[in-house]
UniProtKB/TrEMBL annotation:
<dbReference type="InterPro" id="IPR007920">
    <property type="entry name" value="UPF0223"/>
</dbReference>
<protein>
    <recommendedName>
        <fullName>UPF0223 protein NC799_06305</fullName>
    </recommendedName>
</protein>
<dbReference type="Pfam" id="PF05256">
    <property type="entry name" value="UPF0223"/>
</dbReference>
<dbReference type="InterPro" id="IPR023324">
    <property type="entry name" value="BH2638-like_sf"/>
</dbReference>
<comment type="similarity">
    <text>Belongs to the UPF0223 family.</text>
</comment>
């Protein structure tokens, strides 16, 4: 991993941990596969921290540019998945 996560310095320590957990879930979906429910739970928490759609697009866009992993496509696949585990 040669990139950093887009973090807002105004977030609390717990919020930073939860956002990093969400990005980690996205990475796992691409690298190993992950439970769809785990993605959706971490996304729900991410949305509590970043409720604005435009801010979400900005943060996830930075993450995708750095890592090549799409938050949008991963969450979409988790929502549409009929199986327990997804792999991007």
């Amino acid at each position: 991993m040669n990139y950093s996560y887009p973090i807002d310095e105004s977030w609390s320590k717990q919020e930073i941990i939860d956002v990093v957990n969400f990005f980690s879930m996205i990475e796992k979906a691409y690298e190993d596969g992950v439970k769809a429910d785990d993605i959706l739970i971490s996304y729900t928490r991410f949305k509590q921290i970043v409720p604005s759609k435009s801010e979400e697009k900005k943060i996830c866009g930075k993450f995708e540019k750095e890592s090549g992993y799409s938050c949008y496509r991963t969450v979409k696949k988790a929502r549409e998945s009929n199986s327990n585990k997804i792999k991007m």
